[in-house]
Specification:
The protein is of the alpha+beta class. It is built from 5 helices and 4 strands; from the N terminus they run αααααββββ. The protein has a 4-stranded antiparallel sheet with strand order 1-2-3-4, with no helix packed on it. Helix 1 packs across helix 2.
Length: 182
């Protein structure tokens, strides 16, 4: 019984695996907020479709090269699966790179299709003006300034790492090491 179920599920898992690999890599490496489970499944299905199209195109190109030039290897299902996993990793890395560098939105802004960025507004400001001083207003009213090196994906739940940090006290700057932490 278990062997029959596994035998029926294995082809479906092999078919969908590349899309899930792409989306996992994308969400591991980018600042994009993770959507709900249903939306992630839909995104994995879309990635699976794209990867399947790429594998078919490569298969047809390999067959054409094999007919006219030389035969390098025989196309098998195992090779197709390995190629789809490799393409899934590359697609996930490419999407994460595009999200982190704002590539797609930059192109869309140049074409006047959108004014959005791939990052949230505050992260986009840090990325765009990386060399500039920022001031963080803490919940207890204190203010600290510095050059951001690391920032959390969600400002309310993570930690900032500031280089050259100074507290702002009475409209003056005091070294962050000079004041006791309260």
């Amino acid at each position: 019984m278990v062997g029959e179920i596994f035998g029926e599920l294995l082809p479906a898992i092999q078919l969908l695996l590349p899309g899930f690999i792409s989306t996992v890599i994308f969400y591991w490496l980018s600042d994009a907020p993770k959507p709900g489970q249903f939306e992630r499944v839909i995104q994995a299905l879309i990635c699976t479709g794209l990867i399947s199209l790429m594998v078919e195109a490569i298969k047809k190109a390999a067959h054409a090269i094999g007919e006219c030039c030389f035969v390098w290897a025989v196309w098998t299902d195992d090779r197709a699966m390995a190629l789809s996993v490799a393409l899934a990793v590359l697609l996930g890395l490419a999407l994460a790179f595009a999200a982190c560098t704002d590539s797609f939105y930059k192109l869309a802004r140049r074409c006047r299709l959108t004014t959005r960025a791939s990052h949230t507004d505050w992260v986009y400001g840090f990325v765009l003006y990386r060399e500039r001083l920022v001031v963080l207003q803490l919940r207890d009213g204190r203010r600290i300034c510095g050059y951001p090196l690391v920032w959390p994906t969600q400002p309310g739940t993570g930690h900032f790492l500031l280089q050259g940090a100074c507290w702002i006290v009475d409209d003056g700057f005091v070294s962050a090491q000079a004041l006791p932490h309260t």
